[in-house]
Every structure is written in structure tokens, then in C-alpha cells.
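lol ok so funny story. i was supposed to be doing the assay writeup but got distracted and ended up predicting the structure for this chain instead. priorities right. anyway since i did it might as well share w the group, maybe its usefull for someone
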Amino acid sequence: MKTERVVVYRRLNISGVLAAFTLGFGAFPVFAEILDTRLVIGEGWAVVREVRRVPLRVGEQDLYFDHIPEEADLSSLVIRTRRGVIELREWARVGAWDSEGPVGEPDWLERVDEDGVTWRPPGRAVREETFPRDDRAGMVWCRVHTLLLGMRSVELIYRIEGVSWEPEYQVLIRGDPEGADETVAVDVFGTIRIRNTTSRSYDSALIRLVGAERSEADERSYRGFLMLEDGPLAALWEPPEPEARPEFVYQLPRRVTVEARAETEIHFITASRIPARRRYVLDADETPLTLRGTMNPLRKLLVFRNVSEQGLGVSMPPGVVTVYHGGRRRHMLQEARLPHTPVDGDIRIDFGLEEDVLGRRRTVERTEPMDGYYEEVFEIQLRNNRPGEIAVEIRERPHLSLAWDVVRAPVHEREPNRLLFSLTVPPESGHRLSYRLRFHQPAL
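and the output, tada:
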């Protein structure tokens, strides 16, 4: 079977096109632009999708693609088109290559020489031939088979390592951040930083960002003084595996050029004079049940709506927030955290614990088991030492994994395995809230 070779370059060049006709039936270059570039960027990796225009012939043929970076994982390479099938049978990197090869190379990787590597499916015969070398950056040779004929737009998809992203936020508080007035105005600025450590730039790319919610517990070290370096008991002190967290996808609003070996900043939020309100949260996950003892500080949040009417209305990834007092960023107050916030949701900036607002949870009554259930009464005590009235959010979670029902409780909302209470506490005063639950014991 006759094999045609096609060299796919990025740019249109008239002299190159004329040269193609002079080469006859041998390997001939066909110059083509990258029509579209899209990136999906995660934590330390990216998936690249490029649309290129190539001529195809029925049967087996060779394609050469340039500007595939050295950091690309060619085992992930896919060539496809919407109307028809393109079978990728072999590939080889024919540009410069480290003579040591990739670390931990798989069994199907066969070295051609010190300049390149090639892949063939297991059991496929090795062809005795040499691959033309080219000085053009990132040249990759592909042998494909297809039943398609003519000029086609194909998608070239591969994964690369060394690309990451991180959001940064700045919040400027207007007015007294510690005053008695619990309502303030804020300015919000959001930036995405994309760090590309690879050798390839991507021009005018549509970008989606993928990331999971991270908590402070994920970033803390669990090593204690009993942590053993080696030995059979070392596994007993290993930190627990973090629970799987849902990943979110964020679409950048416009095309971006990602430069090679550089950081790219994209400003995606600019909003001013947004009304915001402080909210203090007592979370059952942070405040255990006690019989007696001191009260614990509540967590202080600054809450405002993520709506387009206020200059926002975009999905906001979790990240660090630098908080300033005043409109000129002269006085930095502190750093806070912003969780994932969907459009039309509440933006909840976490300012840490507030020593002037305290609370505790305790069990005040428990009945004897009867007919497969028993009941407990819980009480929440709050103390507001601030000079103004405050809004408090209580996020209760039953301490047992049994099925339960609410017997008696103030007005509340339900979430999976949670009760949510919202209330206000006058200045320099306390408040008590109680509710009763029925726990159903499993049948033996």
C-alpha cells in the first residue's frame, strides 16, 4: 500500500505551496493554520484541543504536526474529526528529545535513536525506515488510516504537564470594618493567574478551569510528635485520606493568550460599592457538644449576592481574599477565604473567628429508649459582646448517624442531615435556642 506523507505547519506560505507541486508523489509540505485552540486547565495539567486543516487520502498516510511541546504526553494523543474516523496507528517525536528519555517510560515505547521516540501497538511489525528530521519546534510524525478524502478540519487533542491556575481576590471595605453598623459597602476585584511552565505558547485560546473546593483542613499538616518515620506502626499515625470533593468548571469570559514559561493574569471581576452584611456562624462541625465549659468564638463572614445587577454574576472559584480598609488599598486588614460561589448565590468571605461573638451547644435531656426510638433535647447558647445587633446563622448536625425526625424546633430550614437556624441577637446580650429530635434505633 502506498503511503503519502503530509507535513502540517501553522502558517500559510505561497512559496511553500508552490514547492508542494514540485515534489511529486514524495513527502510534500502542506501549510495550515491552527483554526481554533481550547484549553482545559487543572492543578498542574492541561488538555489541549486544536483544530487544524489537513488534506486526507483514503488509506494509510503520514501526517506531520509542528509545535507539539516537549511536555506533551503523546500517549494521550488523539486525532479525530466530526464526520468520519481517523485511526492513529503510530506516532513518533522527530524533534529534539532528551537522550535519557521520559522517566518511567512504558513498555510500548521503542527508541528510534537519540533524537526521537516512537510508539507502535503491541504486535505490530517494526518498519525499517528512517523518519525525516526537522528543525521546526515540536515536530510529531503520525501514521493514520482513514476512509476520508479531501481537506478536513481535524481535532488534535493531547495532555500536557506544567500548567496550573490560581484565583486571587481583593475586597475593599468602605466605612468602619469593626464598627457597630453590621452593613458595609465593598469593592471586589478578581484575577485568575495562569502559570505555564511549558515551552509552548497558546494564542487566543478559549479556556475552562477545573478545580475542587479546598478547606483549611486540607492544607494543615497532621504530623504530630508520635508520627514515626519508619517501622510497622508508622501507618497508624498517617493522616486520613481526604474525602472526595466535587470539582467545578469555570469558563473564562473571553479568549486569552497563554505565553510560554510565564504567568498570565486575567481580570474577570470588577465591582464597586456593593452592599454587604456581616454574619456570624455557629457550625456543629466546629463546635462539639459539651455539658459545661467555656463558650467558643463564632466564625465571622461577610455576605453579599453574586448577581449581575451589582457588577458580578459570574461563577467564582474558591481562593484567598486580601481585605483592605478604604478605597486606596492603604491599610490591609487581613486575608480571608472565599468558597466556590455559583451565579445568583451568596458570596461568603470567611474572616476567621470573632472573639466578641460566642456560642456553645449542649444536650439538656435524653429519654429512655422505647418502641425503637428515644428523644434528645439540645440547647444552643449565644453571647453577643458587640455594640450592635448581629445576624447569626446556626448550622446544626445531629451527632449520631441514626435516622431522626424533628419533634419540636423554632423556624428553620432543612439540608441533608442538617438544620439551619437564622436569628438576630441584640447588642451586649445573650440568646438561647432549643430543639427536640427523635432518633430511631435500628431493628436487631
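The longest strand covers residues 262-283. Helices lie at 14-22, 216-219.
back to the writeup now i swear
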